[in-house]
Amino acid sequence: MAKKQTFSVLYWIRRGRNTDNASPLFCRVTITGQRYEIPLNCKIRPQSWNAAAQRSIGKTAADREANRIIEDTAQNIEDTLERIRQKGYVLNVENFRLMYQAQENPYSTIKTLFEYHLILEKKNLSASTIRQYGITCNHLLTFVRLKYHVSDYDITAIDKAFVNQFFAYLQGYQREDKKKLCTNNGALKHIIRLNKLMNIALQNEWVNRNPAASFRIRFNRVEKEYLTEKELQAIQNANIKPHLAIVRDLFMFAVYTGTAYIDIYNLTPANITIGIDRSLWLHYNRQKTETRCAVPLLEPAETIYHHYETYHENQLTRHIFPVPPNQVVNRYLKQIAAAAGIDKEITFHCGRHSRSLF
C-alpha cells in the first residue's frame, strides 16, 4: 500500500543561549515525513513569539519585519508548489528544495550550472569540448534521475558520496543492464569536468566546498594503437565503395602528415605553401594545442591533395577535403579495416601514431 503523501509548514524559533536576548527564526517544510529547514535570517525575542498563531505578537520594528519575512516565505512556498505542479514533478523534499532555492540563485542546480559555464566559456571552447561538457551534464542528470528520482539536483547537496557514486555509475555499478558507460579514463574525464564546474560554483560562493576536488584522479595507461607498413598497404589496396574511399584518403593523409581529424577538417588551400626547397608544405595551427605546425607533403600526401582539387578549386576559403563527422569516419574505418583483413580497433587517431613508419 502506497504511503499517503503529507505536506506541512511550521515557523519556529531556535531557543538557546542568546546574548542579545533574541532567537533566530526558521521555517520547516515537511513532506511525507521528510524535513527541509529554511533559515529566515532574522531574530526576535522569545517572549514575542506566538507558536499557535505562527507570528510575532510584539510591537517593535524587528517583530514587524519578522512577520513580513514569514508572509514573503509563505508566498515563496506557494509559488514553489505551483511550479512543481506546472512542471509535473513529483512532490518530494528534493524537488521542493531544488525549486525553492532556484528563486535565490538561478544557477543552483546541475543543469543551470552547466548552462552558466557555457555562457561564461563558449567563446573559449571548441565545438568538441562543448559537446563533451554536454555529455557530462546528461550523464549527471540521468544519474540523479535514477538514484534520487528528480529531474535536476541542487549543487549544494553534492558531497563526496555523490561524486564517488557518480563515478561508480559510469563504471556500470548498480545498473540493471550492468552496462559500463565509460572506461576508467573516460569516467575520470567526466569527474574532471564536474570538478571544474564545482570550482566555478565555489568561486561564486554558491557552494561552500567542492567535493569533487579531493577525488583521486588516476588514469590507466593505454597503449596507443598503430598500423604496420604491411597493414597500411592492405588498406591502400582494399577493394571498397566510393564513400569509403574518401575516408581512406583522409586517413592516409593523416598517416603521411601526422594531422589530427579536426585539423584536417579545417584545412584550406591557404594552408598549402611552397617551401624554399620548391616542394609543397602544410602549415597550420593545431586546434588542440594552438601550436604552429609545418609539415612537408610527402609524395603520397601530395597526390591525395591534388586528387581533391576539383572539390576545393584552389579557393583559399574552401575546405580541402569533404570531411564527414568524426563518428562517421571511425565507423567507416572499421569497414575499411574489415575489407583489408585487419583485426584491430582502428580509429582516425591511429593514423597519427602510424606516421613514424614513413
Explain what this protein looks like in three dimensions:
The structure is a single chain. By secondary structure, the chain is of the alpha+beta class. It has 3 domains: 7-101, no CATH class; 110-203; 229-357, Intergrase catalytic core (hpI Integrase, Chain A, Orthogonal Bundle), CATH 1.10.443. The protein has helices at 61-87, 93-101, 110-121, 127-148, 160-170, 184-203, 229-237, 242-257, 261-266, 299-307, 309-312, 326-339, 350-353, and strands at 7-13, 23-31, 34-44, 49-50, 55-56, 272-274, 280-285, 292-296. The strands form 3 sheets. It has a 3-stranded antiparallel β-sheet, covered by helices on one side. A 3-stranded antiparallel β-sheet has the order 6-7-8, with no helix packed on it. A two-stranded antiparallel ribbon has the order 4-5. The chain is elongated. It starts with 6 loop residues before the first strand and ends in a 5-residue tail after the last helix. The mean pLDDT is 85.
Count of spatially separate domains: 3
Radius of gyration: 30 Å
CATH topology of the largest domain: hpI Integrase, Chain A
Structural class: alpha+beta
Number of helices: 13
Straight-line distance between termini: 72 Å
How many β strands by DSSP?
8
Low-confidence stretches: none
List keywords for this structure.
13 helices; hpI Integrase, Chain A; 3 domains; 8 strands; 358 residues; alpha+beta
Brief sketch in words of this structure:
Helix 1 (61-87) crosses helix 2 (93-101), helix 4 crosses helix 6 (184-203) and helix 8 (242-257) crosses helix 12.
